[in-house]
Design brief:
There is one protein chain. This protein is α+β, with helices and mostly antiparallel strands. It has one domain. Helices cover 36% and strands 28% of the residues. The protein is built from 2 helices and 3 strands, in the order H-H-E-E-E. It has a 3-stranded antiparallel β-sheet with strand order 1-2-3, with no helix packed on it. The chain is elongated and about 85 Å long.
Length: 85
Amino acid sequence: MAATRKMPRSLNRASGWTFALLALAVVTRGAPALAHHSVPVNFDQSREITVTGVLTEIKWINPHSRFRMDVKRSSGWWKWARSIR
């Protein structure tokens, strides 16, 4: 039966600090992902609009799906795009 060697105490402490720093990095990286989803900052929720046109493209991709429409206006056709959150 082979003898089991214990790791020196200094390496155990270093591993603990490494784990703590890694855990902190993972936790703090998630904050910016939540911060960019502020609905009141990006949209006027007191106003409702209706857009009628021809749906030209739908993309179901991460992080946000989106669609594009050709919308007829008095000044001609507009390309209209919208992200789906």
